[in-house]
């Protein structure tokens, strides 16, 4: 529950809520990872986006829901897997924060045992809100190593999360994560025949310049771009002009992180962080990475 004496709008208070949120996320990460082997099957339900939910999605959502609604200063919990927000006590925007999560990003990779993630956005306005209302964002990457990237107004850092004597340790391995200046890799989602012609033409140019890295989990693919430089896109498709990814749970937090690391993020026209949502489950095309390729993309789609 929110501390009733909390100083409304005090930035120090935002810092401590953000810290507690990422403590809670780090504490659940080994548990989520350990639970995945038995949860590689469909749960038999569909989520608010009309997508089939895996057993692992549900488990991660429940665990993170319990952990995050218990954090002092979290007033609202919103998840890709839930139709509506959970009231966690406290007025969002008046000392309390809204936490939005994609509990398991790339969960179709469960069956094939490839990388997946968890995405977190901490907003100081009730959702739906724009990405300008984010005060912090981050993601966990369940790769061969469990890592967590966290961005706030001070910058971006990367940690390794490990189980440690019955507890969980967080070790910072990169304290000022910046996109490398020279882009090296690209990863574009969706079927090529479904891409609009302008995007296909842009992709043909990029293919000549960069190396393909596409794993089918946004977190894993964006992490490659943050590490090596480059561009990731889940573009507008001919029959799905809003693409696939969700603004509140996926595009906004990723845009916030990449922009804090020196990069750019657009929906093809404007900065992702300026996109005005109508609902919390809205989708948006996402083009993100080094400024050079993202600006070229905007020009190509113009
Ligand atoms: O299978 P596709 O069409 O390449 O889509 C992959 C994209 O869909 C996603 O898996 C959607 O996320 P969820 O798994 O959270 O629904 C992204 O991680 C990824 O970028
Ligand atoms: Mg996702
Ligand atoms: Mg998901």
TrEMBL record:
A GO molecular function assigned to this protein is: magnesium ion binding
Pathway listed for it is: Carbohydrate biosynthesis
Report the coiled-coil segments: none
Q: Which InterPro entries match?
A: FBPase_C_dom, FBPase_class-1, FBPase_N, FBPtase
- Tell me if rRNA-binding is a UniProt keyword of this record: no
Q: Which organism is it from?
A: Halorubrum yunnanense
Residue ranges of every copy of the Fructose-1-6-bisphosphatase class I N-terminal domain listed in the record: 42-166
The residues that the entry says bind substrate are 105-108, 214, 244
Could you tell me the EC number(s) of this protein?
Answer: 3.1.3.11
**Highest taxon of source:** Archaea
The UniProt subunit note reads as follows: Homotetramer.
Q: What Gene Ontology terms describe where this protein resides (cellular component)?
A: cytoplasm
The UniProt keyword set, sorted, is: Carbohydrate metabolism, Cytoplasm, Hydrolase, Magnesium, Metal-binding
The cross-references to Pfam families, in alphabetical order and at most eight, read: FBPase (PF00316), FBPase_C (PF18913)
Under which name does UniProt file this protein? Fructose-1,6-bisphosphatase class 1
Residues recorded as binding Mg(2+) 1, renumbered to this chain, are 80, 102, 104
Q: Which cofactor does it need?
A: Mg(2+)
**Subcellular location per the Swiss-Prot or TrEMBL entry:** Cytoplasm
**Free-text remark on how the cofactor is bound:** Binds 2 magnesium ions per subunit.
Binding, Mg(2+) 2: 102, 105, 250
Q: Which class of enzymes does this protein belong to?
A: hydrolase
Q: Which family does it belong to?
A: Belongs to the FBPase class 1 family.
């Amino acid at each position: 529950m929110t501390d009733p004496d909390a100083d409304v709008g005090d930035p120090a208070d935002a810092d401590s809520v953000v810290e507690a949120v990422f403590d809670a996320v780090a504490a659940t990460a080994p548990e989520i990872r350990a639970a995945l082997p038995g949860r590689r099957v469909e749960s038999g339900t569909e989520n608010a986006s009309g997508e089939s939910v895996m057993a692992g999605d549900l488990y991660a959502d429940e665990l993170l829901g319990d952990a995050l609604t218990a954090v002092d200063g979290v007033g609202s919990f919103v998840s890709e897997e839930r139709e509506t927000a959970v009231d966690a006590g406290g007025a969002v925007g008046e000392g309390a924060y809204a936490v939005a999560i994609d509990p398991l990003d790339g969960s179709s990779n469960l069956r094939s045992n490839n990388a997946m993630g968890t995405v977190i956005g901490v907003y100081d306005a009730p959702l739906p809100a724009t990405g300008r209302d984010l005060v912090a964002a981050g993601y966990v990457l369940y790769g061969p190593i469990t890592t967590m990237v966290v961005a706030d107004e001070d910058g971006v850092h990367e940690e390794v999360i490990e189980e440690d004597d019955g507890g969980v340790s967080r070790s910072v391995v990169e304290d000022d994560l910046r996109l490398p200046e020279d882009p090296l890799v690209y990863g574009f989602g969706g079927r090529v025949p479904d891409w609009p012609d302008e995007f296909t033409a842009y992709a043909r140019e990029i293919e000549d310049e960069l190396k393909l890295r596409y794993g089918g989990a946004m977190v894993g693919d964006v992490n490659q771009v943050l590490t090596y430089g480059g561009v990731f896109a889940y573009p507008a498709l001919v029959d799905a002009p809003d693409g696939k990814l969700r603004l509140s749970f996926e595009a906004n937090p990723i845009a916030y992180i990449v922009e804090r690391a020196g990069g750019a993020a657009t929906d093809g026209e404007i900065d992702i962080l300026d996109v005005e949502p109508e609902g919390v489950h809205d989708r948006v095309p996402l083009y993100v990475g080094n400024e050079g390729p993202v600006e070229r993309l905007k020009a190509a789609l113009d």
